[in-house]
Specification:
This protein is of the alpha+beta class. It is built from 14 helices and 7 strands.
Length: 363
């Protein structure tokens, strides 16, 4: 499959007048580009803008980020979601600072060896910051190229993705490759949309095989998604005699790693919610508590599953054992106003919001 060299010419001509201004656009500082690309994964542009600004104010360069405490990075990231990105951001900053003298590597292979940097992000940094002829393939680019090439295979399959990467590389221009890659992503976001693509306004319509064959709406082809599983999860709002709440820090590896939470866990089959909470508190902290009423019930969707979080008011009993970090990274007793100093996931922040509405809520 081949595409005329004029494809890039037409796309760049459109980009010259249609490019959308963004805080990171026009920059060649690899730190800025890396930071924006990591934040933009699975996240909308308007959501990212204030986080990007706050990060640059707090950590103006990779050395400053490398020297930060992980807890502080997670707190600044709070609300942006997909927290493994923040952990990998911190790890990569430390590697660049300590192993590369604070300078970003320019080649994609070395970039991909860093935590959280895959083929797409490596290509974006390499092409935009350093002008290297490297392709980028994200969801927008997959949609564009599957239509340009009228690819009739499932784009979620590895062999089809390899075909799209090959096509993306073949389309690269000799110059302005960073702008070209950004133009290709903009085209997918603004014109070649998944629903109601604006073919009449498309600057590369004459190169599009799907448009010529009348198959635009059928591309890209994806296998049907499996049903999203749902889990019931418990959490204990555990008060001690001093009016403090017990919170626990999740292990660094895994979902929401490094974030704090009201301790608890997933309900097992045949288990009541209070029994679930008792078991989880024993397994994670080796404590027994007096479980009271249901305080709040919140729903939250993750990428691959959904949860309903059932939060119970609980009283800590002095004879129930001292907390131990068995299944958690750490634990702490915190007065309610101090909760804002810790980084929590969205579901737990919803519980905190309810607590703030009822600040005198005690057993």
């Amino acid at each position: 499959m081949s595409i005329s060299n004029e494809f890039a010419v037409d796309l760049l001509a459109w980009y010259d007048h249609a490019a959308v201004e963004m805080p990171w656009r026009g920059a060649t500082d690899p730190y800025h580009i890396w930071l924006s690309e990591i934040m933009l994964q699975q996240t909308q542009i308007e959501t990212v803008k204030p986080y990007f600004a706050r990060f640059l104010t707090t950590y103006p360069d990779v050395t400053a980020l490398a020297a930060a405490r992980l807890d502080d990075v997670l707190k600044l990231w709070e609300g942006l979601g997909y927290y493994s990105r923040a952990r990998n951001l911190h790890r990569t900053a430390q590697k660049i600072a300590h192993e590369f003298g604070g300078e970003f590597p320019q080649d994609v292979d070395t970039l991909q060896s860093l935590p959280g940097i895959g083929r797409y992000t490596a290509g974006a940094i390499s092409s935009i910051a350093f002008g290297k002829p490297t392709p980028v393939v994200d969801g927008n680019v997959i949609r564009v190229l599957s239509r340009i090439g009228d690819i009739a295979d499932d784009v979620t399959l590895p062999e089809t993705q390899a075909q799209i990467w090959t096509l993306a590389e073949a389309c690269l221009p000799q110059a302005r490759v960073g702008e070209y890659n950004q133009a290709l992503m903009d085209l997918g976001r603004l014109i070649c949309r998944s629903r109601a693509p604006q073919c009449d306004a498309c600057p590369v319509r004459r190169h599009c095989q799907a448009y010529a064959h009348g198959t635009t709406q059928e591309r890209p082809i994806k296998a049907p998604k499996a049903a999203t599983p749902h889990y019931d999860v418990t959490a204990g709002i555990i008060w001690n005699a001093h009016g403090e709440l017990l919170i626990a820090q999740r292990p660094l590896d895994g979902l929401l790693g490094g974030l704090w939470e009201f301790p608890g866990g997933k309900q097992e089959r045949g288990e009541t919610l209070p029994d679930c909470l008792r078991r989880e508190l024993r397994e994670e902290l080796d404590i027994e508590v007096e479980i009271g009423d249901l305080f709040a019930r919140v729903r939250h969707a993750f990428t691959h599953f959904k949860i309903t979080l059932h939060a119970f008011t609980c009283r800590y009993m002095e004879n129930g054992g001292n907390p131990k970090a068995l299944g958690v990274r750490a634990w702490a007793w915190v007065a309610p106003p101090g909760l804002d100093d810790y980084s929590f996931g969205k579901a737990d922040r919803m519980i905190i919001a309810e607590l703030k509405k009822r600040p005198t809520m005690l057993l």
